[in-house]
Amino acid sequence: MAVMSVLDREHTVAPHTYNRWLIPPAALAAHLCIGQAYATSVYKNSMVEHFGTSQTSIGFVFSIAIVMLGLSAALFGTWVDRVGPRKAMFTAACCWASGFLVGAAGIATGQLWLLYLGYGVIGGIGLGIGYISPVSTLIKWFPDRPGLATGMAIMGFGGGAMVASPASRQLMGFFDSDYDPADAASLADGGALTGLFVSLGVLYFLIMMIGVANIRVPPPGWKPDGFDPAQVKEKPLVTDADVSAANALRTPQFWLLWTVLFCNVTAGIGILEQAAPMIQDFFRDGVGGASAVTVAAAGGFVGLLSLFNMAGRFVWSSTSDYIGRKPIYMVYLGVGMVLYVFLALSGSTTMAVFVLIAAIIISFYGGGFATVPAYLRDLFGVFQVGAIHGRLLTAWAAAGVAGPLIINGFLDRAGGAGTLTADAYRPALFTMVGVLAVGFVANLLIRPVDAKYHEDLTDRHAQAETDRQAGLDAEAELSPSSTRVRLVLSWGVVGALLLYGVSQTLVTALNLF
Question: pTM of this prediction?
Fold first, then answer.
Protein backbone atom coordinates (compact mmCIF):
# COMPACT_ATOMS: atom_id res chain seq x y z
CA MET A 1 0.00 0.00 0.00
CA ALA A 2 2.89 2.36 0.85
CA VAL A 3 4.43 1.76 -2.56
CA MET A 4 1.16 2.63 -4.31
CA SER A 5 0.84 5.87 -2.30
CA VAL A 6 3.35 7.44 -4.68
CA LEU A 7 0.44 7.67 -7.12
CA ASP A 8 -1.60 9.85 -4.75
CA ARG A 9 -2.16 13.48 -5.63
CA GLU A 10 -0.11 14.85 -2.73
CA HIS A 11 2.95 13.05 -4.12
CA THR A 12 2.30 14.46 -7.59
CA VAL A 13 2.63 18.17 -6.74
CA ALA A 14 5.90 19.49 -8.14
CA PRO A 15 8.37 21.75 -6.39
CA HIS A 16 8.68 25.28 -7.76
CA THR A 17 12.04 24.32 -9.30
CA TYR A 18 10.58 21.45 -11.35
CA ASN A 19 11.42 21.66 -15.06
CA ARG A 20 8.15 21.95 -16.97
CA TRP A 21 9.78 20.46 -20.08
CA LEU A 22 9.58 17.06 -18.39
CA ILE A 23 5.80 17.15 -18.83
CA PRO A 24 5.62 17.02 -22.69
CA PRO A 25 7.63 13.76 -22.96
CA ALA A 26 5.49 12.33 -20.16
CA ALA A 27 2.39 13.10 -22.20
CA LEU A 28 4.01 11.86 -25.42
CA ALA A 29 4.96 8.58 -23.75
CA ALA A 30 1.28 7.93 -23.10
CA HIS A 31 -0.10 9.18 -26.42
CA LEU A 32 2.47 7.44 -28.61
CA CYS A 33 1.38 4.15 -27.02
CA ILE A 34 -2.39 4.56 -27.16
CA GLY A 35 -2.10 5.95 -30.70
CA GLN A 36 -1.62 2.31 -31.73
CA ALA A 37 -5.41 2.23 -32.07
CA TYR A 38 -5.01 3.79 -35.54
CA ALA A 39 -2.76 0.91 -36.67
CA THR A 40 -5.20 -1.98 -36.30
CA SER A 41 -5.52 -2.34 -40.08
CA VAL A 42 -1.97 -3.75 -40.18
CA TYR A 43 -3.09 -7.09 -38.74
CA LYS A 44 -6.80 -6.98 -39.58
CA ASN A 45 -6.67 -9.44 -42.50
CA SER A 46 -4.53 -11.83 -40.47
CA MET A 47 -7.16 -11.71 -37.71
CA VAL A 48 -9.92 -12.43 -40.23
CA GLU A 49 -8.03 -15.49 -41.47
CA HIS A 50 -7.13 -16.71 -37.98
CA PHE A 51 -10.65 -16.48 -36.54
CA GLY A 52 -12.31 -17.53 -39.81
CA THR A 53 -14.76 -14.65 -39.61
CA SER A 54 -15.71 -11.50 -41.55
CA GLN A 55 -14.03 -8.11 -41.91
CA THR A 56 -16.99 -6.58 -40.10
CA SER A 57 -16.56 -8.88 -37.08
CA ILE A 58 -12.88 -7.98 -36.70
CA GLY A 59 -13.51 -4.30 -37.43
CA PHE A 60 -15.98 -4.33 -34.55
CA VAL A 61 -13.01 -4.65 -32.16
CA PHE A 62 -11.77 -1.20 -33.22
CA SER A 63 -15.29 0.24 -33.05
CA ILE A 64 -15.73 -0.97 -29.46
CA ALA A 65 -12.38 0.55 -28.49
CA ILE A 66 -13.26 3.98 -29.94
CA VAL A 67 -16.73 3.95 -28.33
CA MET A 68 -15.15 3.02 -24.99
CA LEU A 69 -12.61 5.82 -25.48
CA GLY A 70 -15.41 8.37 -25.70
CA LEU A 71 -17.45 6.86 -22.87
CA SER A 72 -14.54 6.42 -20.44
CA ALA A 73 -13.19 9.90 -21.17
CA ALA A 74 -16.63 11.34 -20.39
CA LEU A 75 -17.31 9.18 -17.33
CA PHE A 76 -13.88 9.33 -15.70
CA GLY A 77 -12.93 12.91 -16.58
CA THR A 78 -13.92 14.33 -13.17
CA TRP A 79 -12.14 11.46 -11.41
CA VAL A 80 -8.96 12.18 -13.40
CA ASP A 81 -9.04 15.83 -12.29
CA ARG A 82 -9.65 14.82 -8.66
CA VAL A 83 -6.97 12.12 -8.20
CA GLY A 84 -4.32 13.78 -10.37
CA PRO A 85 -2.58 12.76 -13.58
CA ARG A 86 -0.15 10.20 -12.13
CA LYS A 87 -2.77 7.82 -10.77
CA ALA A 88 -4.87 8.34 -13.91
CA MET A 89 -1.95 7.59 -16.26
CA PHE A 90 -1.00 4.52 -14.23
CA THR A 91 -4.59 3.28 -14.46
CA ALA A 92 -4.56 3.92 -18.21
CA ALA A 93 -1.30 1.99 -18.62
CA CYS A 94 -2.69 -0.98 -16.67
CA CYS A 95 -5.91 -1.05 -18.73
CA TRP A 96 -4.13 -0.58 -22.06
CA ALA A 97 -1.54 -3.29 -21.35
CA SER A 98 -4.13 -5.65 -19.84
CA GLY A 99 -6.29 -5.19 -22.91
CA PHE A 100 -3.50 -6.53 -25.11
CA LEU A 101 -2.83 -9.48 -22.80
CA VAL A 102 -6.51 -10.47 -22.57
CA GLY A 103 -6.74 -10.03 -26.35
CA ALA A 104 -3.69 -12.29 -26.74
CA ALA A 105 -5.46 -14.96 -24.70
CA GLY A 106 -8.45 -14.64 -27.04
CA ILE A 107 -6.23 -15.06 -30.11
CA ALA A 108 -4.40 -18.03 -28.62
CA THR A 109 -7.64 -19.83 -27.71
CA GLY A 110 -9.63 -18.74 -30.76
CA GLN A 111 -12.19 -16.90 -28.59
CA LEU A 112 -13.16 -13.72 -30.41
CA TRP A 113 -15.22 -12.46 -27.47
CA LEU A 114 -12.01 -12.23 -25.41
CA LEU A 115 -10.53 -9.96 -28.07
CA TYR A 116 -13.65 -7.79 -27.82
CA LEU A 117 -13.36 -7.72 -24.01
CA GLY A 118 -9.60 -7.20 -23.94
CA TYR A 119 -8.63 -4.78 -26.69
CA GLY A 120 -12.13 -3.37 -27.14
CA VAL A 121 -13.50 -2.81 -23.63
CA ILE A 122 -10.53 -2.90 -21.22
CA GLY A 123 -8.11 -1.38 -23.71
CA GLY A 124 -10.73 1.17 -24.75
CA ILE A 125 -11.03 2.35 -21.14
CA GLY A 126 -7.26 2.78 -21.09
CA LEU A 127 -7.52 4.75 -24.33
CA GLY A 128 -10.01 7.23 -22.89
CA ILE A 129 -8.26 7.79 -19.55
CA GLY A 130 -4.84 7.87 -21.19
CA TYR A 131 -5.97 10.40 -23.78
CA ILE A 132 -7.26 13.03 -21.35
CA SER A 133 -5.07 12.51 -18.27
CA PRO A 134 -1.95 14.47 -19.38
CA VAL A 135 -3.76 17.19 -21.35
CA SER A 136 -5.14 19.37 -18.52
CA THR A 137 -1.78 19.06 -16.73
CA LEU A 138 0.05 20.39 -19.78
CA ILE A 139 -2.29 23.35 -19.96
CA LYS A 140 -1.51 24.21 -16.33
CA TRP A 141 2.24 24.05 -16.96
CA PHE A 142 2.02 26.11 -20.17
CA PRO A 143 -0.49 28.91 -19.50
CA ASP A 144 1.56 31.06 -21.88
CA ARG A 145 1.36 28.55 -24.76
CA PRO A 146 -1.59 26.15 -24.21
CA GLY A 147 -1.92 25.41 -27.93
CA LEU A 148 1.75 24.44 -28.18
CA ALA A 149 1.42 22.23 -25.09
CA THR A 150 -1.66 20.31 -26.18
CA GLY A 151 -0.29 20.09 -29.72
CA MET A 152 2.84 18.34 -28.45
CA ALA A 153 0.81 15.75 -26.53
CA ILE A 154 -1.91 15.01 -29.03
CA MET A 155 0.68 14.96 -31.81
CA GLY A 156 1.77 11.74 -30.13
CA PHE A 157 -1.62 10.14 -30.63
CA GLY A 158 -1.40 10.87 -34.36
CA GLY A 159 2.18 9.61 -34.43
CA GLY A 160 1.42 6.43 -32.51
CA ALA A 161 0.22 4.69 -35.65
CA MET A 162 3.42 5.63 -37.48
CA VAL A 163 5.38 3.78 -34.81
CA ALA A 164 2.97 0.87 -34.34
CA SER A 165 2.40 0.05 -38.02
CA PRO A 166 5.99 -0.82 -39.02
CA ALA A 167 6.78 -2.22 -35.56
CA SER A 168 3.77 -4.56 -35.75
CA ARG A 169 4.76 -5.83 -39.18
CA GLN A 170 8.32 -6.45 -38.03
CA LEU A 171 7.18 -8.22 -34.84
CA MET A 172 4.83 -10.48 -36.80
CA GLY A 173 7.73 -11.30 -39.13
CA PHE A 174 9.84 -12.17 -36.09
CA PHE A 175 7.23 -14.58 -34.71
CA ASP A 176 6.25 -16.06 -38.10
CA SER A 177 9.07 -16.76 -40.58
CA ASP A 178 6.55 -17.23 -43.40
CA TYR A 179 5.13 -13.72 -42.95
CA ASP A 180 6.59 -11.03 -45.24
CA PRO A 181 6.31 -7.53 -43.69
CA ALA A 182 6.86 -5.95 -47.12
CA ASP A 183 3.98 -7.83 -48.77
CA ALA A 184 0.53 -6.32 -48.15
CA ALA A 185 -1.10 -9.65 -49.04
CA SER A 186 1.00 -11.71 -46.59
CA LEU A 187 -0.85 -13.06 -43.54
CA ALA A 188 0.56 -13.85 -40.09
CA ASP A 189 -0.50 -16.97 -38.21
CA GLY A 190 -2.19 -17.14 -34.80
CA GLY A 191 1.09 -17.64 -32.95
CA ALA A 192 2.53 -14.47 -34.46
CA LEU A 193 -0.60 -12.49 -33.59
CA THR A 194 -0.47 -13.77 -30.01
CA GLY A 195 3.22 -12.87 -29.75
CA LEU A 196 2.50 -9.45 -31.21
CA PHE A 197 -0.19 -8.65 -28.65
CA VAL A 198 1.89 -9.88 -25.70
CA SER A 199 4.92 -7.89 -26.90
CA LEU A 200 2.92 -4.70 -27.43
CA GLY A 201 1.23 -5.05 -24.04
CA VAL A 202 4.57 -5.32 -22.20
CA LEU A 203 6.40 -2.67 -24.26
CA TYR A 204 3.60 -0.13 -24.04
CA PHE A 205 3.30 -0.57 -20.28
CA LEU A 206 7.03 0.11 -19.82
CA ILE A 207 6.98 3.19 -22.07
CA MET A 208 3.89 4.60 -20.35
CA MET A 209 5.67 4.22 -17.00
CA ILE A 210 8.06 6.95 -18.17
CA GLY A 211 5.08 9.27 -18.25
CA VAL A 212 3.85 8.07 -14.86
CA ALA A 213 7.27 8.73 -13.31
CA ASN A 214 7.61 12.27 -14.68
CA ILE A 215 4.10 13.68 -14.62
CA ARG A 216 3.49 16.32 -11.96
CA VAL A 217 1.03 19.15 -11.35
CA PRO A 218 2.40 22.65 -10.70
CA PRO A 219 2.21 23.99 -7.15
CA PRO A 220 -0.40 26.69 -6.39
CA GLY A 221 0.68 30.11 -7.56
CA TRP A 222 3.33 28.79 -9.98
CA LYS A 223 3.78 30.57 -13.29
CA PRO A 224 6.51 30.51 -15.96
CA ASP A 225 9.28 33.08 -15.76
CA GLY A 226 8.28 36.28 -17.53
CA PHE A 227 4.63 35.26 -17.86
CA ASP A 228 2.02 37.92 -17.04
CA PRO A 229 -1.46 36.42 -16.51
CA ALA A 230 -2.99 39.85 -17.19
CA GLN A 231 -1.96 39.55 -20.83
CA VAL A 232 -4.06 36.40 -21.20
CA LYS A 233 -7.19 38.12 -19.90
CA GLU A 234 -6.99 40.66 -22.72
CA LYS A 235 -7.39 38.04 -25.46
CA PRO A 236 -10.86 37.50 -26.97
CA LEU A 237 -12.88 34.61 -25.45
CA VAL A 238 -10.18 33.87 -22.85
CA THR A 239 -11.45 33.86 -19.27
CA ASP A 240 -9.61 34.03 -15.95
CA ALA A 241 -12.62 32.45 -14.23
CA ASP A 242 -13.42 28.75 -13.92
CA VAL A 243 -16.43 26.63 -14.87
CA SER A 244 -17.11 23.17 -13.47
CA ALA A 245 -17.71 20.20 -15.76
CA ALA A 246 -21.33 20.01 -14.62
CA ASN A 247 -21.96 23.67 -15.39
CA ALA A 248 -20.12 23.49 -18.71
CA LEU A 249 -22.76 21.07 -20.00
CA ARG A 250 -25.40 23.73 -19.31
CA THR A 251 -23.71 26.34 -21.49
CA PRO A 252 -24.43 26.86 -25.20
CA GLN A 253 -20.68 27.24 -25.74
CA PHE A 254 -20.06 23.59 -24.87
CA TRP A 255 -22.62 22.30 -27.36
CA LEU A 256 -21.52 24.71 -30.06
CA LEU A 257 -17.95 23.50 -29.63
CA TRP A 258 -19.23 19.89 -29.58
CA THR A 259 -20.80 20.59 -32.99
CA VAL A 260 -17.58 22.19 -34.27
CA LEU A 261 -15.48 19.16 -33.28
CA PHE A 262 -18.07 16.71 -34.60
CA CYS A 263 -18.17 18.40 -38.01
CA ASN A 264 -14.39 18.75 -38.31
CA VAL A 265 -13.79 15.11 -37.36
CA THR A 266 -16.63 13.77 -39.52
CA ALA A 267 -15.17 15.44 -42.60
CA GLY A 268 -11.60 14.35 -41.93
CA ILE A 269 -12.24 10.79 -40.85
CA GLY A 270 -14.20 10.13 -44.03
CA ILE A 271 -11.01 10.57 -46.08
CA LEU A 272 -8.76 8.90 -43.53
CA GLU A 273 -10.87 5.75 -43.39
CA GLN A 274 -11.06 5.46 -47.20
CA ALA A 275 -7.61 6.79 -48.08
CA ALA A 276 -5.98 3.85 -49.89
CA PRO A 277 -8.91 2.83 -52.15
CA MET A 278 -9.82 6.48 -52.70
CA ILE A 279 -6.56 7.46 -54.41
CA GLN A 280 -6.71 4.32 -56.53
CA ASP A 281 -10.29 5.05 -57.59
CA PHE A 282 -9.56 8.70 -58.44
CA PHE A 283 -6.96 7.57 -60.97
CA ARG A 284 -8.78 4.56 -62.41
CA ASP A 285 -9.09 4.14 -66.18
CA GLY A 286 -12.88 4.14 -66.40
CA VAL A 287 -15.42 2.06 -64.49
CA GLY A 288 -13.87 -1.33 -63.72
CA GLY A 289 -10.58 -0.34 -65.36
CA ALA A 290 -7.09 -0.58 -63.94
CA SER A 291 -5.83 2.08 -61.54
CA ALA A 292 -2.67 4.06 -62.22
CA VAL A 293 -1.92 3.84 -58.48
CA THR A 294 -0.42 0.56 -57.25
CA VAL A 295 -1.21 -1.01 -53.87
CA ALA A 296 2.26 -0.02 -52.65
CA ALA A 297 1.75 3.58 -53.78
CA ALA A 298 -1.64 3.69 -52.04
CA GLY A 299 0.09 2.52 -48.87
CA GLY A 300 2.59 5.33 -49.32
CA PHE A 301 -0.28 7.79 -49.57
CA VAL A 302 -1.70 6.52 -46.27
CA GLY A 303 1.73 6.95 -44.69
CA LEU A 304 2.01 10.50 -46.01
CA LEU A 305 -1.42 11.34 -44.56
CA SER A 306 -0.33 10.05 -41.17
CA LEU A 307 2.63 12.45 -41.28
CA PHE A 308 0.36 15.40 -42.06
CA ASN A 309 -2.10 14.24 -39.40
CA MET A 310 0.67 14.31 -36.80
CA ALA A 311 2.31 17.52 -38.03
CA GLY A 312 -1.04 19.34 -38.21
CA ARG A 313 -1.67 18.60 -34.55
CA PHE A 314 1.48 20.44 -33.58
CA VAL A 315 1.72 23.19 -36.21
CA TRP A 316 -1.90 24.36 -36.30
CA SER A 317 -2.43 24.10 -32.53
CA SER A 318 0.75 26.12 -31.91
CA THR A 319 -0.43 28.69 -34.46
CA SER A 320 -3.65 29.11 -32.47
CA ASP A 321 -1.60 30.63 -29.61
CA TYR A 322 -0.92 33.59 -31.89
CA ILE A 323 -4.14 34.04 -33.89
CA GLY A 324 -6.66 32.63 -31.39
CA ARG A 325 -8.69 29.47 -31.15
CA LYS A 326 -11.83 30.75 -32.88
CA PRO A 327 -9.93 32.07 -35.95
CA ILE A 328 -7.97 28.82 -36.37
CA TYR A 329 -11.22 26.83 -36.44
CA MET A 330 -12.51 29.22 -39.10
CA VAL A 331 -9.46 28.11 -41.10
CA TYR A 332 -10.07 24.41 -40.43
CA LEU A 333 -13.72 24.64 -41.43
CA GLY A 334 -13.79 27.49 -43.96
CA VAL A 335 -10.67 26.59 -45.93
CA GLY A 336 -11.68 22.94 -45.52
CA MET A 337 -14.91 23.62 -47.42
CA VAL A 338 -12.96 25.16 -50.30
CA LEU A 339 -10.51 22.25 -50.36
CA TYR A 340 -13.31 19.67 -50.47
CA VAL A 341 -14.83 21.47 -53.46
CA PHE A 342 -11.44 21.48 -55.21
CA LEU A 343 -10.94 17.81 -54.38
CA ALA A 344 -14.32 16.90 -55.86
CA LEU A 345 -13.88 18.96 -59.04
CA SER A 346 -10.12 18.87 -59.69
CA GLY A 347 -8.72 16.06 -57.54
CA SER A 348 -8.47 13.63 -60.44
CA THR A 349 -6.49 15.98 -62.73
CA THR A 350 -3.04 15.14 -61.34
CA MET A 351 -1.84 13.02 -58.46
CA ALA A 352 0.13 15.94 -57.01
CA VAL A 353 -3.05 18.03 -56.70
CA PHE A 354 -4.96 15.16 -55.09
CA VAL A 355 -2.22 14.37 -52.56
CA LEU A 356 -1.66 18.02 -51.63
CA ILE A 357 -5.36 18.76 -51.03
CA ALA A 358 -5.95 15.56 -49.07
CA ALA A 359 -2.84 16.16 -46.95
CA ILE A 360 -3.94 19.67 -45.97
CA ILE A 361 -7.46 18.43 -45.13
CA ILE A 362 -5.99 15.74 -42.86
CA SER A 363 -3.69 18.30 -41.21
CA PHE A 364 -6.85 20.28 -40.32
CA TYR A 365 -8.39 17.08 -38.95
CA GLY A 366 -5.40 16.56 -36.65
CA GLY A 367 -5.21 20.23 -35.77
CA GLY A 368 -8.84 20.22 -34.65
CA PHE A 369 -8.11 17.51 -32.09
CA ALA A 370 -5.05 19.26 -30.72
CA THR A 371 -6.57 22.75 -30.53
CA VAL A 372 -9.82 21.86 -28.78
CA PRO A 373 -8.35 21.42 -25.26
CA ALA A 374 -6.87 24.93 -25.45
CA TYR A 375 -10.22 26.24 -26.75
CA LEU A 376 -11.89 24.67 -23.72
CA ARG A 377 -9.34 26.27 -21.43
CA ASP A 378 -10.06 29.67 -22.98
CA LEU A 379 -13.82 29.31 -22.45
CA PHE A 380 -14.04 27.40 -19.16
CA GLY A 381 -10.73 27.91 -17.33
CA VAL A 382 -8.44 25.22 -15.95
CA PHE A 383 -10.49 24.01 -12.95
CA GLN A 384 -12.01 20.89 -14.55
CA VAL A 385 -10.82 21.26 -18.14
CA GLY A 386 -9.83 17.58 -18.27
CA ALA A 387 -13.34 16.47 -17.33
CA ILE A 388 -14.90 18.89 -19.81
CA HIS A 389 -12.52 17.64 -22.51
CA GLY A 390 -13.57 14.07 -21.73
CA ARG A 391 -17.24 14.91 -22.21
CA LEU A 392 -16.50 16.75 -25.43
CA LEU A 393 -14.80 13.66 -26.89
CA THR A 394 -18.22 12.05 -27.28
CA ALA A 395 -18.29 14.17 -30.45
CA TRP A 396 -15.35 12.09 -31.69
CA ALA A 397 -17.18 8.84 -31.00
CA ALA A 398 -20.24 10.12 -32.89
CA ALA A 399 -18.14 11.40 -35.80
CA GLY A 400 -16.29 8.08 -35.97
CA VAL A 401 -19.61 6.50 -36.88
CA ALA A 402 -21.02 9.32 -39.04
CA GLY A 403 -17.98 10.00 -41.26
CA PRO A 404 -17.48 6.47 -42.62
CA LEU A 405 -21.26 5.98 -42.91
CA ILE A 406 -21.58 9.04 -45.17
CA ILE A 407 -18.67 8.06 -47.41
CA ASN A 408 -19.47 4.34 -47.56
CA GLY A 409 -23.20 4.97 -48.02
CA PHE A 410 -22.60 6.93 -51.24
CA LEU A 411 -19.97 4.48 -52.47
CA ASP A 412 -22.14 1.42 -51.86
CA ARG A 413 -24.82 2.93 -54.07
CA ALA A 414 -22.29 3.80 -56.78
CA GLY A 415 -20.83 0.31 -57.22
CA GLY A 416 -18.51 -2.32 -55.78
CA ALA A 417 -14.90 -2.05 -54.68
CA GLY A 418 -12.45 -1.85 -57.57
CA THR A 419 -15.04 -0.44 -59.99
CA LEU A 420 -15.41 3.13 -58.65
CA THR A 421 -14.07 6.33 -60.18
CA ALA A 422 -13.75 9.93 -58.97
CA ASP A 423 -17.37 10.58 -59.99
CA ALA A 424 -18.59 8.15 -57.32
CA TYR A 425 -16.95 10.23 -54.58
CA ARG A 426 -18.31 13.64 -55.56
CA PRO A 427 -21.72 13.40 -53.80
CA ALA A 428 -19.99 12.36 -50.57
CA LEU A 429 -17.40 15.14 -50.84
CA PHE A 430 -20.06 17.80 -51.45
CA THR A 431 -21.96 16.43 -48.44
CA MET A 432 -18.83 16.98 -46.36
CA VAL A 433 -18.80 20.61 -47.53
CA GLY A 434 -22.27 20.96 -45.99
CA VAL A 435 -21.09 19.29 -42.77
CA LEU A 436 -18.18 21.72 -42.51
CA ALA A 437 -20.54 24.65 -43.16
CA VAL A 438 -22.61 23.64 -40.13
CA GLY A 439 -19.45 23.58 -38.01
CA PHE A 440 -18.34 26.95 -39.41
CA VAL A 441 -21.62 28.58 -38.35
CA ALA A 442 -21.44 26.94 -34.91
CA ASN A 443 -17.93 28.33 -34.41
CA LEU A 444 -19.06 31.83 -35.40
CA LEU A 445 -21.77 31.70 -32.71
CA ILE A 446 -19.36 30.99 -29.84
CA ARG A 447 -19.20 33.84 -27.32
CA PRO A 448 -17.63 34.19 -23.84
CA VAL A 449 -19.32 32.10 -21.15
CA ASP A 450 -21.85 33.97 -19.02
CA ALA A 451 -20.61 34.81 -15.50
CA LYS A 452 -23.57 32.94 -13.95
CA TYR A 453 -21.80 29.67 -14.82
CA HIS A 454 -18.54 30.63 -13.11
CA GLU A 455 -17.44 28.53 -10.15
CA ASP A 456 -17.19 29.75 -6.56
CA LEU A 457 -13.66 28.62 -5.70
CA THR A 458 -13.89 29.11 -1.94
CA ASP A 459 -13.91 25.38 -1.28
CA ARG A 460 -10.69 24.98 -3.28
CA HIS A 461 -8.60 26.95 -0.80
CA ALA A 462 -8.08 23.90 1.43
CA GLN A 463 -6.92 21.80 -1.52
CA ALA A 464 -4.63 24.62 -2.64
CA GLU A 465 -3.05 24.77 0.81
CA THR A 466 -2.52 21.00 0.78
CA ASP A 467 -0.94 21.22 -2.66
CA ARG A 468 1.26 24.13 -1.55
CA GLN A 469 2.63 22.13 1.38
CA ALA A 470 3.14 19.09 -0.84
CA GLY A 471 5.12 21.25 -3.26
CA LEU A 472 7.35 22.48 -0.43
CA ASP A 473 7.92 18.90 0.75
CA ALA A 474 8.91 17.93 -2.80
CA GLU A 475 11.66 20.57 -2.99
CA ALA A 476 14.19 18.16 -1.53
CA GLU A 477 13.17 15.17 -3.63
CA LEU A 478 14.86 16.04 -6.90
CA SER A 479 18.35 17.36 -7.39
CA PRO A 480 19.22 19.43 -10.49
CA SER A 481 21.46 16.61 -11.76
CA SER A 482 18.72 13.97 -11.50
CA THR A 483 16.32 16.34 -13.30
CA ARG A 484 18.78 16.73 -16.17
CA VAL A 485 19.16 12.95 -16.45
CA ARG A 486 15.37 12.52 -16.51
CA LEU A 487 15.06 15.24 -19.14
CA VAL A 488 17.62 13.65 -21.46
CA LEU A 489 16.35 10.10 -21.03
CA SER A 490 12.66 11.01 -21.40
CA TRP A 491 13.12 13.11 -24.53
CA GLY A 492 15.56 10.50 -25.85
CA VAL A 493 13.00 7.69 -25.65
CA VAL A 494 10.06 9.59 -27.18
CA GLY A 495 12.36 11.24 -29.73
CA ALA A 496 13.70 7.85 -30.84
CA LEU A 497 10.15 6.50 -31.20
CA LEU A 498 9.09 9.51 -33.28
CA LEU A 499 12.22 9.33 -35.44
CA TYR A 500 11.63 5.63 -36.07
CA GLY A 501 8.00 6.24 -37.04
CA VAL A 502 8.75 9.19 -39.32
CA SER A 503 11.65 7.42 -41.08
CA GLN A 504 9.59 4.26 -41.67
CA THR A 505 6.67 6.33 -42.96
CA LEU A 506 8.87 8.31 -45.35
CA VAL A 507 10.26 5.07 -46.77
CA THR A 508 6.69 3.90 -47.41
CA ALA A 509 5.67 7.27 -48.85
CA LEU A 510 8.43 7.03 -51.48
CA ASN A 511 6.25 4.43 -53.23
CA LEU A 512 4.05 7.35 -54.34
CA PHE A 513 6.88 8.65 -56.48
Answer: 0.88
